[in-house]
Design goal:
It contains 4 helices and 2 strands. The protein has helices at residues 13-39, 49-52, 71-77, 92-115, and strands at residues 54-59, 62-67. It has a two-stranded antiparallel ribbon. Strand 1 and strand 2 (62-67) form a beta hairpin. It is elongated, with a radius of gyration of 20 Å. The model has no long low-confidence stretch (mean pLDDT 91).
């Protein structure tokens, strides 16, 4: 004998899709939280108000990350007109995504795999 074992698998596509959707939402939020954490070291910092205004919103379409201080948009749009402290930038989210995309995706993938039943 070759040691081959044939096992029947009962597939429930509705349950699989539901699980995948739920895990997708949860892990996308985890990825967004990680992005915010990593961006914290790049956000321009003077009083801390901008950093504290960070928000993550999740819904059925995905995750949105933003900053509620009015000048966040100005800093981003005119980032080249300002001088920031070492490691800080007016394009902090963009630069964090560019620098950390692979690690964020890896964290999302691992969280998804660990949550998958079976």
């Amino acid at each position: 004998m070759s040691g081959l074992v044939i096992t029947r698998v009962k597939w429930d596509p509705d349950r699989a899709l539901s699980t995948a959707e739920q895990l997708g939402r949860e892990t996308t939020v985890q990825g967004g939280e990680l992005l915010l954490e990593l961006a914290r070291g790049r956000v321009p910092y003077r009083t801390g108000r901008l950093a504290r205004s960070a928000r993550l919103r999740a819904d059925e379409r995905g995750v949105a990350i933003g900053y509620s201080r009015w000048y966040a948009r100005v800093l981003h749009a005119r980032a080249d007109d300002w001088t920031f402290g070492i490691g800080r930038s007016g394009r902090w989210l963009e630069e964090t995504i560019d620098a950390e995309a692979e690690s964020i995706c890896r964290v999302i993938a691992e969280a998804f795999k660990s949550g998958w039943p079976g």
